[in-house]
Amino acid sequence: MARHERLSTLLDLLGQREKIDVEDVAEELHVSAATIRRDLDHLAEQQLLTRTRGGAVANDLAYDLPLRYKTARHVPEKQRISVAAAALVTQGMVVGLNGGTTTAGVARSLATRSDLAGLRDSPGLTVVTNALNIAHELAVRPHVKIVVTGGVARPQSFELSGPLATRVLSELTIDLLFLGVDAFDADAGAFAHHEGEASINRLMVERAERVVAVADGSKLGRRAFARICATPQVHALVTDANADPKVLRAFEAAGVEVQAV
Q1: Which residues contact 232 (CB under 8 A, 6 or more apart)?
Q2: Which of 124, 127, 129 is nearest to 113 (CA)?
Q3: Do the beta carbons of residue 34 and residue 42 sit within 8 Å?
Q4: Which among 15, 88, 102, 253 is most buried, taking Cβ atoms within 10 Å?
Q5: pLDDT tens profile 195-237
Q6: What distance in Å separates the CA atoms of residue 71 and residue 248, rounded to the nearest whole number?
């Protein structure tokens, strides 16, 4: 197992259990206890966990992760969600994508949709995004017109935020927004870890005719630091089939269309 995979696995285990023991995890991952201690120290330096005597505890069950760690988490689920979400797009739409690994997956799925190609030199799809990695992913696709919001980049997520991003978005209308979230609770709404990202994502929601949240089951039934929007502002949720059925029923009761794939 490569180191970045091991680090992601440790964070996954910590999210599931709230605390982990060095000796137990070393045995599970078939590595030495010294290796696990070094990994935990590295993650603690980035404030992703708190070291304890013999192990570690989570700082918060909805902690923020740098994008390089998020990419290795829940990969099969995110791939299914991305394909299912991209299937909701039709030719000529203006699609909004905020930052995140799942929305980046939606972007890749849209890039492979040859049926979205426009006529001659006209784009078949317009994508509005505040995420630099998504803009980079789609910029070379001839059938996609890319509109980037501008703003100040946040290195952890590649998202642009601030007054410049707000100024651009306030002039646009989005047909369908795919909203990546850090947490989504049926009662409390959708959340991001960073208040700047929550603010720009909130404006994207307001500018969209239809909002579809894309999130794997680990993010559901949870809350994070900054609220993006209330649950009624989200029309649909695309998640994975392993999500807690009780949590999904709560979303349906709140009026959100649920698609579990």
Answers
A1: 254, 255
A2: 124
A3: no
A4: 102
A5: 999 999 999 999 999 999 999 999 999 998 899 999 999 999 9
A6: 24
pTM: 0.75
Distance CA 40, CA 51 (A): 7
pLDDT in tens, 59-113: 654 445 555 555 545 678 888 999 999 999 999 999 999 998 899 999 999 988 8
Max Cα separation, the chain? Answer: 65
